[in-house]
Amino acid sequence: MTLTDMVQICVKENTLDFFEQLLNSLLKSSDRTLLFASRQIVDTLVDNVLTLDSKMASGGGEVINSSEESTSMNAAAAHKEHQERMLACLSTLSLFSKAKPDLMVKHAETLQPYLSMNMNGPAEQQVMNQVINMLERVVPLMDHPSESFLKTLDESLYQLVKDGGMRIIASSLACNAAIYNKWKKRTPAIIETFFKYLKYLHQIKEDVLRKQSSGILPVRKPMVLRSLFSIGLMSRYFDLDAILENDDEAKKFLDANALTLSPSSPLTEVNEEHDEEEKQCAKSSPFVEMIFQVLTTFCKYRDGDIRLKALNAIGNFTATNSEYLTRTELRNMYMTLLGTDDKEYLGLKIQTLKNLELFLSAEETKMVKNNSEWHISKEEHDLKEMELANSGLASAIIQLYWNAVLNSYYNPDDAVRTAAVQVAILTLGQGLVTPGSSIPTLIAMSTDRNTLIRNKVENMLRDIDSKYAGMVPSKAVAGIRCSFRLHMIIKKDPECVLRGIRVCDQAVTAAGSVDNPKLVNGLPKMTNDGQALLSGLYQNLRGNRQQRRSFLSSILRLFSEDSREKLTLEEWLFVADNLAMFPYQVIDEPLYVIRRIESIVSISGQNIINNFMGQLLPRPSSVENDDEAEYTPELIYRRFPEDKSMLHECMKNSQACFILLYLKNFLMKLYGFSDAKVQEYSPSEAAKVYEKAVSSRRNMLMFNPHSALQELRPETAQKRDTVNGHIEMANQIVAFRNMLLSLDRDNGDEHDGTDGTGFMETAISKDTNSTIMEDEDQDTHMADSISDTTNLNEVDARSA
């Protein structure tokens, strides 16, 4: 396999970034042997490009002049193969020019003629784009390029901007600007096009504002779109006011269209000092100010395509003229778009996030450039001062939009979330904000269904935790709640109960096929096929025993009756799913969870019973003063008050205890813990005793707390205020109390030989004489047992 073959594969698999990273790390070392070999590779690749080009040129004649169909088809296939090889060679050369551009300097004039090639299809456009990008990086490094070479380049790029598509326009303008900024020997020909586009847009803007026309005619729309896109890029890459400073025609145009601030402009709402500063900006950079006014006007136009293109142009404009991001009118527009969930404005919302991403990328490029310049003249400049000067404005700007960006992430559209994540990663990576307020949203991002988003954010959280010890755990509960909020928004079926478990990333078997696990109601059926949504967060925090326990305790505290965080039943289920499927590695982890569950249930459960009994009507005098006699479904049913809202609240709180007991039972079975093993566990024991690797983890049926799932069914809510619903509630109260009593007995006895459902079976056997058959699903066993108890007690209550 050749180098170009490998690049072709990388392009198809979208993994070219990894090869680029490899080249960068290799060529950064400045090893003479590596550089010599790289130069030979580059020279060979350029020769290959020329050879393939000549073959394609001669092959074209064969296709045209061939009289036989088979020969024509063979020639067409050969032409396509040569084209693909040529594109692979150019892609490889482009990567070398990124890593070490001076390797390509002597080949710049060889590449220049390709700017005049015809672009008849996507392949030719890709070739053209690669050539332009290489010239952008290489030409500024040439020592003394000839005047004729620069002039030919300028004219070729001018034609490409006039006639090319958006991708070619963007590449051509970037290349033209890089060459002009290095060799300011002549005004770029593209400035003529800029002037033409600006006058055209300004005239349409004035007509629209004065309402002299019914709107932009369809025949004019393509030209308006092209002009908006090009103007935005030109203002990004060129200092237009400096270039046109001595241009007489430009001065006449400005004099004829002197900018005045409209009384209705949002600009007049700001304080006088800020207003004066903006007026001064308009005087010092009149063309930049005019471009801004034109673009913001078109952003408000009723046509969606024109609005989107104008907003895209503003993104390019503010990448260089970042101070305009503090303007009131632009800030208001951005904040409105970031905050809207209207599908009509979805494209504009995504573009706003991309604009902020572009601004941050431009700031990062400036920092890299300043760093390289400092290495050249480190004695004259202080790097710290340079960084502070550049990051000060960027930090002030992004903080204006930071909360809106984080909130915009909670959206069902994948493109919106991806764009928001990119802004967050760039912002935190550059240190423009402190990470504290963003950690809950970052935790939510780490649970995104998009694998690329998850991986990026998990790395970011890991970095934050290493730099700011304790910050991530302190925000963990808020992060879990944000994760629940996210998945409630993005779940596909609004009627479906949200779970905190996802299918493991697909693994490829030895035979090369993808193993697809069996799903039941959207969940993997077996535990080996599933993982917690918050697995990434837990993996980051579990290394430190104290930190891990604090994290687990804070999560389990959410189930406590005295918790300040009031969760819904569905949210409790979501949290329990994660606790059930966290990737526990040492036996201390699940054992600690089990012991904390016992503690919470024993305290909260008794409080719930007391609260429940406190809501009942006084006990009849005819009933004997005996606890066992008092706790019967019949008597409790008769003592129900007229308003049962508080009773329903108590029953809802009891579900937290039920879920925790299901969780305890599930963990005991999953990791093979006996009751004796749990009872002998002490959290205060020395770390070495329980910091042993989990010896086995069973592949069993997935965690399914049936009582909670049953409670979440719509029909359960519908029959809540019926007679049958009230009878069922009385039975549930008795079952809940019996369950607590059995748990207390189990904790007081040292025994082994019963499984994790023992506490439930004990509670139920107290009220029934039925025999419970063993079920392979331990949760179904528990649910069926409760159901049997309820039904039998209901019969007893009715007969009484």
Q: How many individual helices?
A: 37
Q: Got a strand count?
A: 4
Strand order of the largest sheet: 1-4
Radius of gyration: 35 Å
Structural class, by secondary structure, is: mainly alpha
- Overall mean confidence score, pLDDT: 83
Helix content: 55-70%
Note the beta-strand portion.
under 5%
Low-confidence runs of at least 5 consecutive residues:
61-66, 260-271, 507-513, 750-800
Sheet with the most strands, sense and barrel status: 2 strands, antiparallel
Distance between the termini: 86 Å
Shape: elongated
Question: Could you please describe the fold and organization of this structure?
Answer:
It is found in: Nucleus. A hairpin with a 2-residue loop joins strand 2 and strand 3. This protein has a domain of 211 residues. Helices cover 67% and strands 1% of the residues. Strands 1-4 form a two-stranded antiparallel sheet. Strands 2-3 form a two-stranded antiparallel ribbon. Helix 20 runs antiparallel to helix 21. By secondary structure, it is mostly helical. The protein is built from 37 helices and four strands.
Observed structural traits:
two-stranded antiparallel sheet, two-stranded antiparallel ribbon, mainly alpha
Write the layout of secondary structure elements.
Blueprint (H helix, E strand, L loop, with lengths): L2 H10 L3 H12 L4 H34 L3 H31 L8 H4 L10 H17 L8 H17 L2 H17 L7 H20 L11 H17 L2 H4 L4 H9 L15 H13 L1 H14 L4 H17 L7 H12 L6 H31 L6 H26 L5 H16 L9 H7 L5 H17 L3 H4 L1 H15 L10 E3 L15 E2 L2 E2 L5 E3 L2 H7 L3 H12 L12 H13 L6 H28 L11 H4 L2 H6 L6 H27 L3 H6 L6 H4 L15 H6 L2 H5 L4 H26 L9 H8 L12 H22 L1
Antiparallel strand pairs: 1-4, 2-3
Helix pairs in contact: 1-4, 2-4, 3-4, 4-6, 6-8, 7-8, 8-10, 9-10, 9-14, 10-15, 13-14, 14-15, 15-17, 16-17, 16-18, 17-18, 17-19, 18-19, 19-21, 20-21, 20-23, 21-24, 25-27, 26-30, 27-30, 27-35, 30-35, 35-36, 35-37, 36-37
